[in-house]
Amino acid sequence: MTEEYNHLGIVVSGSLTKGIEVRLDGSASVEEMAVGRYVTIQGEKRRFFGMITDISLGVTDERITLSPPPAADRFTAEVLAGTGTFGTLHVLPMLTIGGDTGALIEGPQPVKTVPAHFAEVRLASQQDMETVFGGEDARKFYIGTPLDMETKICLDLPELVKRSNGIFGKSGTGKTFLTRILLIGMLQKSAAVNLVFDMHNEYGWEGSSESKHGKVKGLKQLFPASVAVFTLDEESSKRRKVSTDFVVRIGYDEIEPEDIALLRQTLNLTDIAVEAVYQLARKYGRNWVQSTLDIEDAEELPEGLNIHESTLQNLQRGLNTFRRLPFLTPHSSENVVQRILEYLDRGINVVLEFGRYTDITAYILVANLLSRRIYDQYRSRTEKATAEDSIPPRPLVITIEEAHKFLNPVVANQTIFGTIAREMRKYNVTLLVIDQRPSGIDEEVMSQLGTKITCLLDNERDIDAVLAGVSGRNELKSVLAKLESKQQALIFGHAVPMPVVVKTREYGSAASYKDFGSDEAETQKKTKKDIEELWG
Amino acid sequence: MTELSSRVGEVIEASTVEFVAQCYELYRSPPLGSLVKTADENAEQYGIVYNVTTSSIEPGRRPIARGKDEANEADIYSNSPQLAKLLRTEFSAILVGHRHGAELRYYLPPHPPRIHSFVYQCQSEEVKEFSRAFEFLPMLVGAQLPVPVEEVVAACLRQMSREAEDPHRFLVTAGKELAVLLGNDFNRLKAILGRIRAG
Asked: Which of A177, A369, A470, B81 gets the most CB atoms within 10 Å of its CB?
């Protein structure tokens, strides 16, 4: 691609809020443009960096549209291209790069003005992209390439995990692949550890793929030393030949009324039944679930409990669901939370597989129950660390799928995830929410997400929800709606200097595993080095 | 000069924007739209032929039909040799630029050509040089002429394109120039484009 070729046109009008209109030269073909691509605009003193957000066709004389030349008349069309008829790019300016040396050190700054009339517009070069997104280093993790370019777009992961983040996209657009890549990034480049609630057994050992390979390696296969797989369903794990580190059992006595409140919808409980739970828990203490299930008649209810028979029945019907979940036992001797924390403290990422229990009741119950305990532990430890001026616990990222079930406006206030998302990193715990229906997530939670990575969304409400509060959202909307259905994502927020559309890096081939620099490769390299040193 | 141009006539009427020249030979005028030039000691003035007329040398005397008993047209002229002297061919050219020293200027010369200046039809090299820029087009397109301007413009571009290395490229570039000039008059543009496409 020569410099000449990169020339697109000139700025003809625009505003900072609405974006800049660029008139395309006759030589630049409208068909070769694409929303989501980057352009640089050379102003007098600084360079502007922007994204193409819309492409339109214009005419100088309305009569051209009223009596157009016949389609066969290539000559007239050729003459009119760039003169009577022209393409217009709508560019959203995002960053400026100053011309003086001071500005070079500062790096790209958010845009606060627009370039003057007739400033030259070019396609951003590889070098421009590198200036803005930087290269791969100890902090930056290569997540993908911009459209039609080879440059690596890198995310600053230590910065990323400081806030809660979201990955969105319709089903089948590559959310899981993206998450897997991001988890590897966190594992390698950030000081944070991950706790993944893996509803569909995609991350731990082996994931499925729609490509011809059928299967892709999970985290544990690539990084055996730094990933532990916990399972709720030992049988399923064994069948899938997963080497698990721990089988999770949860006692009824660990279930608290708050957990039930969250499950109100999935267990089909009435409001009154949820109220009754609190009463029962007060009365029976830790064993309230078992005790409630043991009650055969409303008349057996102890004195002082004001619970109607139908409410009790409703509650018992709901709680009976627990009996169908084998990982729930009346009493569990193991302290799961403690085990998870032990692993996390050692810097080992924990993936909790759900096996066959992919129904939402199990997922919500377990994820909420465990996260709350872990969060409590983290809170007290962080507070202690602050008081004693010692080292706070390792930052933790909790990954949840189907996030709208936990974070919808009705329950967001009750679940621990709502709290984590809102209180952010005070206690070193953040979320990575994965969801296909972002409109279902509480607005307040959405607004607190630091970086959002979104694959294709086509529901209007979902798009609005994801882009709420982002500057230039109308422009980004058209970009988002035009993403390809695979391997493309729009990233914006805290961890990137400006919104960027990436083609996510490959995952699933042997070469890609090598690129990620898995433990295996590292170990081999190290062994080789050791041998060399030993024998000189 | 004569190597590049061939002399075709003499100026018999001149104004700031155009001149009329009489051809030395009957019917031997440069074709419509061709680039011609006249020269005096100060400058060379370039014009585009926009109108050619052939008429009686005496305004009051109209030619009469003579061929009733002749077999073909050529016989009329050979049987009445005086005809060639009684008729004359004139052409009008609109001034579109001049040369000052070595520099080509695409605007009107400070003085119109003088009467009896020789008029030359520009040859290949000179046409090529002149048509390197299209700055003469505004004057041509904007002119008020007794003939349809579109015809003149189209004829002129067709002729020039024959001398260009890549005639198609030349016409497209010229067309783009016209599209800008006629940005608010698509119909005129279409009329011209339709005529140069064929050429």
From this structure: A177
Domain regions of chain B by residue span: 5-198
Query: From its phi and psi, is residue A25 left (phi > 0), alpha (psi between -120 and 50) or beta?
Result: beta
> Could you tell me the mean pLDDT of each successive run of 10 residues in chain A, 536 residues long?
68 90 85 85 88 87 84 86 87 83 73 90 85 80 82 84 89 86 84 86 79 76 86 84 84 82 82 85 82 77 76 84 82 82 88 84 84 87 88 87 81 77 79 89 86 88 86 81 85 85 82 69 63 68
The token pair at A357 is: 């229990």
> DSSP 3-state assignment of A226?
coil
Q: Is B166 on the interface with A (CB under 8 A)?
A: no
Q: Identify residue A95 by its one-letter amino acid code.
A: L
The answer to the question of residue A144 being in a domain is: no
Give me the domain span that covers residue A296: 253-323
- Check whether residue A205 and residue A290 sit in a common domain: no
Q: Please indicate, yes or no, if residue A129 is contained in any of the structural domains.
A: no
A65 close contact with B: CB closer than 8 A: no
Query: Is the CB of A84 less than 8 angstroms away from the CB of B179?
Result: yes
State whether A476 and A433 are in the same domain.
Answer: yes
Q: Is position A336 within any domain?
A: no
User: Which residues of chain A lie closer than 8 angstroms to B179, CB-CB?
Assistant: 60, 79-80, 83-84
Q: CB distance A83–B180 less than 8 Å?
A: yes
Chain A hits for B190, CB-CB cut-off 8 Å, are 67, 69, 76
Q: What would the two tokens of residue A501 be?
A: 């559309």
Q: Is residue A420 part of a domain?
A: yes
ipTM exceeds 0.85, yes or no = no
A164 Rama class: left (phi>0) / alpha (psi -120 to 50) / beta: beta
Same domain? For A244 and A262 the reply is no
